[in-house]
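Our working data are protein records whose layout never changes between entries. An example says more than a description, so a record of this kind follows.
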Amino acid sequence: MRHDKAAMVIELARRMAASAEGLTLDEMARDMGVGRRTAERMRDAVLMLFPSVEEVSDPPSKRWRIRGGLNGFEQAPTATEMLELTKAAQGLRAAGEPARAAALEGLERKIKAAMRSAALNRMAPDLEALVRAETIAVQAGPRPTADETMLAEIRNAVLAQRPLGFLYSRPGAEPRRRGVAPCGLMFGRANYLVAADRETGKIQTFRLDRMSGVEAQEGHAPPPADFDLAAFSTQSFGIYQDQIEKVELCVTPQGAAEARGWRWHPTQTLQDRPDGSVMVRFEASGMRELAWHLFTWGEQVEILAPERLKTVMAEELAAAGRALERSRS
């Protein structure tokens, strides 16, 4: 469709409708990947097809925009729907999949272009607040799930800055009723509510799968003024960047079921073996952090490659052993 002139004119119209200030000819040429003369012809085609195009003086340039959105798309999306679209695109870019991210970003532009200005203006504050209040932490781990009703209740409490009450269950402990000031959500190895204790202001995390009876309460409970969710999410272990190596692991039959549902790496491939074990292969850097993760699998994972990962694992185990010996002396 890239070379289909009609499709490109419609795409330009969507971009003009999605821009509050309008587009210059140079911006049209850049966004559409064409020369200035072609951009002029495309602009003229948009002027013919859409009488609502406005010309805005912005010395030394001129801008063109379509006020009121495009006809034919009357159903405005909700802030939550737009949030999930934005978040999905961000997650794909972070995972190194720019093509899939661009597809979602293009869809987002089309939706905004189809919206009435009044609806877009009403949605913008909530969407901006939710984007700030949620982030994605991509790590190795089980594939998490989240209850849609619970997420909706948490998001409503974040937007309204209301206290959030819920029953929290920890393994081996009696369930406890909690009341917090919700700061946002963090998605990754498990999904977490990030919240502040209402008395001390201390930031805490609560796994969503351990929460029940989630309900927004009466009152006002804003997050701490200096709290930054994105900065908070980076305090956990990061990913070390060094040379990329081919990793081969063999998971025993006892751990195979869990391994099949595990997110090891974006490049992973899994292969079942006749004895019930699973071969896991991917390319990655950060052998030290990978060794730390593999330690949690105990005897259920055998390292086949690379040799450097075996060496790093042996070094880390030796260091842990020395630390344990010191603690006993």
About this structure: The two ends are 72 Å apart (CA to CA). Confidence is low (pLDDT under 50) at residues 236-241. The first helix runs from residue 5 to 18.
